[in-house]
């Protein structure tokens, strides 16, 4: 394993949602409040698109070109060439302070995504499943800052986080898409940092980014800590395995809320990094709709 390598000093307000595109050999990632979608090709190319609103995530589609994207208050179909956004579903219009935050696709091609209180004040965020027919189903609620869904190797366990509670939860995934038996998988202290985005490796361990924790931690399937990899930034947000062998780990970060003095100590806040994880990841799943 190696130290973090700077890939793109994008100075993102909130870098998030890294997505490995096998078919494009590229990493897509968002700057939520910068209203940007970035693309980093493994050939070193960089490209960015300005979005009309906050953008939390994009996922690829199995049978169609382009993406499905999570904006502040809506899910939309997105293509980049030609550039087109078609709204598919409005979200939580009666909760004006809520916004979409993080998402992941399961092996059945369903999108699991959460919402959060943008001011991170109250437990008004919810957790949803979006099926391939674009029907939306609320599966849980009570989150201040919902984050980082990921899955066990067999897809029967779903992991989801409330960053403000410093906890990662486990759910059993039923055959009809319901989730049951919510329990705490791992807890963190303020000194360790708040669990943010995460992904699962080929050994069934979770790689969890720690907001204000300057690091990524690898958790074993029983929730115990295996090892920690430091980064040169405090607000580590999300990660994805990439490359033909899925042996490269790309990591996003944020600079929002940092003072001028703090930015002097971490000038690369908001950058995209790469680390050598020493293990391989799982293939990126695509939305079946």
Description:
Strands 1-24-23-22 form a 4-stranded antiparallel sheet, with no helix packed on it. It has a 4-stranded antiparallel sheet with strand order 2-3-4-5, with no helix packed on it. The mean pLDDT is 96. With 289 residues, the chain is mostly beta strands. A hairpin with a 2-residue loop joins strand 7 and strand 8 (74-80). The protein has one domain (5-275): TolB, C-terminal domain (Neuraminidase), CATH 2.120.10.30. The N and C termini lie far apart (38 Å). It is 2% helix and 53% strand.
Name the average pLDDT: 96
- The strand line-up of the biggest sheet is 1-24-23-22
- The ordered H/E elements are EEEEEEEEEEEEEEEEEEEEEEEHE
Q: What shape does the CA trace take?
A: globular
Protein name: SMP-30/gluconolactonase/LRE family protein
Family: Belongs to the SMP-30/CGR1 family.
Enzyme class: hydrolase
GO molecular function: hydrolase activity
